[in-house]
């Protein structure tokens, strides 16, 4: 199987994944918003499939760190609704013409940023969990960024609970999205290989991120995440028009 991505692109992609996994590991959020626009700028081949694939490993690592703090009641409501949203997201990807994919991808990233910035924290109710679950499935499958709705829901929750609970939700979301994208014909063995080739960057970012826990606050992580996501999405939009 011959790679179409040059070595330089793979090295830059690994650098992006280092930064994204560092922020995600230390603050519990940020991988998708940082990685998606920057990887898309390198090549649209890297998103959403390969990015979702490599992020499964990060979510499993983070889940293993704090699995005893997972709030099972919340997860029980989120997972089935994420599956519903995943089917909708896969349908969106299938119906999009290839020539406007970059534009739509950039706009959806900006929507995720807007949700994170402007939406007020939601109370942890069953109804809000269901709504957020569907939104996570749609956005995670279509863009690789499932975290926006969860940030709105969990932004005032203790980080000791948030990090492992979101890790479990993300793991399920990523796997469900990959299955849906495979069925839709837009995720292949080749794209899985691209994801694996970004694994070194993910491991480096995870190790550094663990050391930065307690030093990098949520506010710093949020600022980095939103700044990079906005800048990357705008650049991708300009590149795609």
From TrEMBL:
It holds the Pfam family TauE. It is found in: Cell membrane. PANTHER family: MEMBRANE TRANSPORTER PROTEIN (PTHR30269:SF37), TRANSMEMBRANE PROTEIN YFCA (PTHR30269). It comes from the Bacteria. Keywords: Cell membrane, Membrane, Transmembrane, Transmembrane helix, Transport. InterPro entries: TM_pro_TauE-like, TSUP. It is a multi-pass membrane protein. It comes from Roseobacter denitrificans (strain ATCC 33942 / OCh 114). Belongs to the 4-toluene sulfonate uptake permease (TSUP) (TC 2.A.102) family. This is Probable membrane transporter protein. The chain crosses the membrane at residues 6-23, 35-63, 75-96, 103-122, 128-154, 166-184, 190-208, 220-238. GO terms for cellular component: plasma membrane.
